[in-house]
TrEMBL record:
The keyword Coiled coil applies. CDD domains: ParAB_family. InterPro entries: AAA_dom, DNA_Partitioning_ATPase, P-loop_NTPase. This is ParA family protein. It comes from Pelomonas aquatica. Residues 3-178 form the AAA domain. Pfam families: AAA_31. Keywords: Coiled coil. It comes from the Bacteria. Signal peptide: none annotated. Residues 84-118 form a coiled coil.
Length: 257
């Protein structure tokens, strides 16, 4: 049975999608069976996995509205070695349509219950908001991975996310926990980043992943080739860090079982 993780942070541009596709590719290289669920109508995780969102006939939208199963709606990223439940602009409408429906926050959870046997890991790329879509992600997951840049305001945003996760844990999903905070786009030469990193460790202890993802231009270039950085340039520092992170995640779930 798959372990299911949301990659979430209500801020935009913090590295959620980069973390999702590169962790997925890293895990695939370690022989894990992985499904990426793109819950962002921008479809960046879909495109970044080499799947053209404009050509998809079925997406996560159909799964949320229960007109397709995950097995029917998924696509395969051959080069990256994992499956993708894709998204495109159509998903933006789901937000409104779901409000009318029963069990609106548990639609993805229901679909994943069926698909989980086919995978070791499900990674859900969340949009930059605490919306109905993100709620569907958080209700489905065993845990949350929070990518964050070590900047001053990062800590402030974290408090809101931690409170939301606590509420969902109490009311909707008793499994949900923060698995860890992942320091991304890290530049050790910047004193402030080092200081924020130290504060994070002092405050959150072992909830901070050991692996640190450096700022690395190859990770930023990879999406325009429809590839995760791990596949695009395996020898780059960024790719190597994500493979290390995949190893760290495999170890973490052993302690979760
Ligand atoms: P989000 O999904 O949270 O909005 P993205 O993963 O799309 O964030 O990242 C935002 C931007 O930063 C993208 O252009 C991405 O290529 C770039 N980026 C992400 N991580 C790194 C990194 N470690 N080094 C360099 N650029 C990065
Ligand atoms: Mg994104």
């Amino acid at each position: 049975m798959a372990k299911i993780f949301c990659i979430a942070n209500q801020k935009g541009g913090v590295g959620k999608t980069t973390t999702t596709v590169n962790l997925a590719a890293g895990l695939a290289q370690l022989g894990q069976r992985v499904l990426v669920v793109d819950l962002d109508p921008q479809g960046n995780a879909t495109m970044g996995s080499g799947i053209d969102k404009r050509k998809l006939e079925t997406t996560v939208y159909d799964v949320l509205l229960e007109s397709a199963s995950i097995a029917e709606a998924k696509a395969r990223s051959e080069k990256a070695g994992y499956d993708v439940l894709g998204a495109n602009r159509e998903l933006a409408g789901a937000e409104v349509e779901l409000v009318e429906l029963e069990r609106r926050e548990a639609r993805l959870k229901g679909a994943l219950a069926e698909a989980a046997k086919d995978y070791d890991f499900v990674l859900i790329d969340c949009p930059p908001s605490l919306s109905m879509l993100t709620l569907n992600g958080l209700c489905s997951a065993h845990g949350v991975i929070v990518p964050m840049q070590c900047e001053y305001f990062a800590l402030e945003g974290l408090t809101d996310l931690v409170n939301t996760i606590k509420q969902i844990h109490a009311n909707l999903n008793h499994d949900l926990q923060i698995i860890g905070l992942l320091r991304v786009m890290f530049d050790p030469r910047i004193t402030l980043q080092q200081q924020v990193s130290d504060q994070l460790k002092a405050h959150f202890n072992d909830k901070v992943f050991d692996t640190v993802i450096p700022r690395n231009v190859r990770l930023a270039e990879a999406p325009s080739y429809g590839l995760p950085g791990v596949v695009f340039d395996p020898s780059s520092k960024g790719a190597q860090a994500f493979v290390d992170f995949a190893r760290e995640m495999v170890k973490r779930i052993e302690t979760m079982r």
